[in-house]
Each structure stands twice: as structure tokens, then as C-alpha cells.
Amino acid sequence: MESSQHESQWEALCLGLRERLSPASFHEWIEPCVPQRLEGNVLSIQVPNPSNRIWIEQQLAEEFHDALGQAGLSHLKLVFSVAGNAKKTPPNKQSGSAPSGEQVAIEAPSPFPPLFHRYTLDRFVVGPGNQLAFSAAKAVVDNHGKSNASFNMNPLFIYGGAGLGKTHLMIGIGQALRVRHPHLAIAYLKVDVFFHEVTSAIKNRNTEPLRRKYQQNDVLLLDDVQTLRSMERTQEEVFYILEYLLQHGKQIVITSDNAPQKLEGLHERLITRCKWGLTADIQPPDFETRIAILKKKLEEEFFKDFPPVPEDVLAFIGHKAKGSVRDLEGLLNRVMFQSDFLKVSPSLEVAMNAFQGQSGQEASATVPLERVFRMTAETFNLSFTDLMKKKSRQQNVLLPRQVAMYLARELTAASFADIGRSFNNMHHSTVMNAIESVKLRMGRDPDFHKTVHALLNSIH
Predict the structure, then answer these.
(1) Is the pLDDT of residue 171 over 90?
(2) Hey, which of 93, 252, 282, 398 has its CA 20 to 30 A from 204?
(3) Is the backbone of residue 101 left (phi > 0), alpha (psi -120 to 50) or beta?
(4) Other CB atoms closer than 10 Å to residue 258's CB: what's the count?
């Protein structure tokens, strides 16, 4: 009986994964997996090699969690083992282990999905695009239970694009609170999973126990609230839960892909609750932050026996995977796996081949400077000649020029001096000041930030 049960549960999980992954990703990472056994609520799955395991645990954690919820298997714990006990297998961290750097024993079962153990605040790399969100997250942890907090951060509403670290930050708050206050009742709730819970409760004609299940928590982490837009009854249940928790002074953290005022399809009273506390956005990381993220990832136990990664390889990855943190870490994983498979040290050639294999695009080491400058001029309705040659302090010329310098630094391997020579031999310090000016403006002007990043992502 158990033999068929573990296979049927794996098949149900795979149905959800097929919907969330591209056919190529499903074929590469999921099809080689073999369900081994089911013991209680632990499903053991064998993978062919350490690369497969690390990719699933680090790149597909959220997809697995969502698929488990869709299949009605949220209670299931997944344990991945490598066939033949291959080397370089990362340590199997239990779901109840404390975050890195925290030496506090916790005996209670973790409220977080087991594949989310990496999501701790000490592993979150801070840069200009996420400084406010991270500071708010730290403040929620530091001020919990204090009555003299300077700002109302309840709820803390974090929004930004996919793969930028919203869930990481949210789970990091929960993990840190759990370490400092072991007796807190903390719940992590993905909206899609809650939808299935509500559907089941309605079928049983009794939603009250479900509502009480979440109202009894001290901390609620509500993930992906934007998906509520088409869930009328689920919205109602979420509202009652939030209302109860807020009235009783319980901490709420919410994530979304949009700011509260842009959540189309949500009831106005629910949007109002989302706006009560502090709203903080997360923007794509700049080049320096992307490099810091890569170096942080290379400190992980899994990579300790790998050869060092040259700076030009890190720069290449940082330039190519600029859309999200997940893309960035995914490309680094591919580079490391490919170099390990070929038994060679990581190199620019390996990185270019890994990028081409992942994206299907031709991999050139750099974007031509002229292309960066021409597309910047076009975006700001300025002639290419005026952008490059016109001597003017007027904002309609100065700002596009500063943006062009910033993009050149982000997208190419050009030095400050190289960029300055392109603009009538400007001194490298002038270029550095221009780039810093753009960063400061991006930090205080969300619309300008979006304009620059839209341009950044459109240049290939």
C-alpha cells in the first residue's frame, strides 16, 4: 500500500510542477527524480547527483511549495538524497534548525516549508534597491513586543517583481522572530495554498475552524497577496483574519508584486488594511549588489571544495543575469555545475556556454558601449550626437548622459576612464560622480528607478 502511495503522491506533485516549470526545466530537474518511500509525512526522493539536489533546493523551493499546496499535500515534508552518496552533497538541514549565526535550540516544528531553510536575514544581501525593505524587516524583529516603537510597521507590506527576494525577506523575519521568541505562534501562508484550504472548508460547510487556525497566531506571513484578485470568498476570509490580528496587536507581513494601491480586483477594505503600516518596495539589484550576491552564494558549504571563480566570470554573470536574484543564482549554479562536470576551473568560456545553454541566446562577453549610448539617447528623445558631444548643464542633456554612464558601468566591462573617454575625455571622477548621482535619484524617485531599469533590461 505504501509503495503505491508514495508514487501516487509524487505523481500528484509533478502535475503541479509541470504547470509551474518550462518543459525543459521539468525534463532536466524533475524527471530524473525517483520517489523512494513514504514514512509518516516524509516523502523521500532520490536525485541522480548533487547538482540536481542543490538546484531543486535553491531554485525550485517556491515551485515545490506551491505544487504541494495545489495537490493538497501541504503537510508533506520532502527529503532529497543523492544516488550513491555522491560527493559535494550539501548538509541536510532539518526544518527546525536555527538560522545561520543563531545558536538557539528550537524543539518545536518549524512553521516554514522545509526547502525555505536558506531564507534567513543574515543571508540577505543589501543594496540600494532593497535597503528600506531590509531595514524595515530588521526593525520588525528588533521592536517585536515593544510598546515604544517609533513607526507603525503593522502590517509590513513588501512589494516588487518576481525573484527579487520578497519571500526570502518575509521568511527571514519569521525565522529571526522564532529564534528570539521561541514561544511565538508563527504562520506562513501562501495565498494559493489558502485558496485550496478555503475551498475544502466551504465543501465541508464549515469555515470557522480555518479562520480560527490563523487568527490564533502571533505573527502571520501572507505571501503573494496579489493572487487574491480573482478569489472573492478567499478575500473575505483573509480580511477577517487580518482584521482580527490587527485588532489584537499581532504582527503581519505581506508580500505582493504591486503596491497596495495598484492591487486590482481586491476589495477596498482589504487594500486599506494593507496600507495601514509601512510599505517598502524591492527593486532589481544594481551591478555591485549582484556581485555581492554572487560572492555571498559562493560562501555556501556546497561550493567550498570548488576552485575560486575569477572576477571576469562573476562580472559576466552579473551583466547577463540582471533581472532577478533567482536568475543570478541560477546562472552561477549552472556555471559551477558545468565546470565541475567538465573537470575544469570556472572560466569565461564555461560561463558563456552555460548562459547560452540556459537562455538559448548567443553569449557575448559584453554589450557594445555604443549600443548602450544609442538606446539611452533614444529613450530620452535626444540625438546621439547631443548625448555624446554637446557641452551642456541643462537637465535634458545632463540627466540622459548620467544615465548612459550608469548603464555603461552596469552592462559592460568598461572602466570609469573608458566611459569618460567616450564623452569628450571626461575625467574618471566626473563619471563616478554621475553614476552616484543616478543611484541616489533612483533611491528617492521610484518612477525614475523604473525607467532606468526598464532601459537596463531592454539592452542586450
Answers:
(1) yes
(2) 252
(3) left
(4) 14
Q: Measure the CA–CA gap between 93 and 164, rounded to whole angstroms.
A: 24
The CATH number, out of the four listed (3.90.640.10, 1.10.10.60, 3.30.1330.30, 1.10.1750.10), of the domain defined by the range 369-458: 1.10.1750.10
Distance CA 165, CA 133 (A): 10
User: DSSP characters for 367-435?
Assistant: --HHHHHHHHHHHTT--HHHHHH-----HHHHHHHHHHHHHHHHHS---HHHHHHHTTT--HHHHHHHH
Superfamily designation of domain 114-282: P-loop containing nucleotide triphosphate hydrolases (3.40.50.300)
DSSP 3-state of 107: coil
> C-alpha cell of 233?
470568498
Q: Write the pLDDT tens digit of every residue in 420-436.
A: 888 888 888 899 999 98
Q: What are phi and psi of 332, to 5 degrees?
A: -60, -45
Hey, what's the torsion of the CAs at 209, 215, 219, 222, to 10 degrees? 70
Q: Do domains 114-282 and 369-458 have the same CATH topology?
A: no
- Sorted by where each begins, the domain ranges of the chain are 2-85, 114-282, 287-359, 369-458
Residue 322 pLDDT level (bands cut at 50, 70, 90): confident
Q: How confident is the model at residue 364 (pLDDT cuts 50, 70, 90)?
A: low
CB atoms within 10 A of CB 303: 19
At 445, the pLDDT band (50, 70, 90 cuts) reads confident
Encode pLDDT of 384-402 as tens digits. 888 888 777 778 888 999 9
Tell me how crowded residue 198 is: count the other CB atoms within 10 A of its CB.
20
Spatial distance between the Cα atoms of 434 and 402, rounded to a whole number of angstroms: 5
**Grid coordinates in use for 156?**
509590513
Terminus-to-terminus CA distance in the chain, angstroms?
Answer: 54
Query: Grid coordinates in use for 143?
Result: 521592536
Q: Does the domain spanning 2-85 belong to CATH 3.30.300.180?
A: yes
The pLDDT score that the predictor gives to residue 148 is 62
Instruction: Output the pLDDT for position 98.
Output: 40
Q: Considering the domain 287-359 in this protein, what is its CATH number?
A: 1.10.8.60
